[in-house]
Amino acid sequence: MVGHPRRKPDSLFADRGYDHDIYRDQVRARGIVPAIARRGTLHGTGLGTYRWVVERSFAWLHGFRRLRVRWERRADIHEAFLKLACCLITHRQLRSLCEPPIAG
């Protein structure tokens, strides 16, 4: 169904770019608890933990020049390159876990 979401989230996580009382008030007005990091505070609240994983994954995908800018007109070909890149990234990660430690 197009339109309003089925249910309202309990909380909203945001980074320091949204550190302003106006945003907190708008979120509270909708009955949602804001969890917005404050500027100038130390890290450690857990905010940004999941975002970093996503940004790192996008960076790995952008390491493949063909995916950085979409040149293919057909979506199925682009999706095939995307899946191939994901397989290669997974292979690299698994290989790095299985390598024996270097004795120095």
Describe the protein.
It is a single chain. The protein has helices spanning 21-29, 49-62, 65-68, 75-98; strands spanning 11-14, 33-36. The chain folds into two domains: 1-47, no CATH class; 49-98, no CATH class. It has 104 residues and is mainly alpha-helical. Strands 1-2 form a two-stranded parallel ribbon. It is extended, with a radius of gyration of 20 Å. The model has no long low-confidence stretch (mean pLDDT 83).
Q: What's the short version?
A:
Helix content is 49%, strand content 8%.
Layout: helices, strands, pairs:
Layout: E1 11-14, H1 21-29, E2 33-36, H2 49-62, H3 65-68, H4 75-98
Parallel strand pairs: 1-2
Oligomer: single chain
Give the number of DSSP strands.
Answer: 2
What's the structural domain tally?
A: 2
Helix count, DSSP H or I runs of 4 or more residues:
4
Largest sheet: 2 strands, parallel
How would the global form be characterised? extended
Task: Show unreliable segments.
Answer: none
Structural class: mainly alpha
Residue-averaged pLDDT, rounded? 83
Instruction: Return Rg in Å.
Output: 20 Å
Helix content: 40-55%
Question: Could you give the order of strands across the largest sheet?
Answer: 1-2
Topology pattern, helix = H, strand = E = EHEHHH
Tell me the span between the first and last alpha carbons. Answer: 60 Å
Sheet-strand content, in percent, reads 5-15%
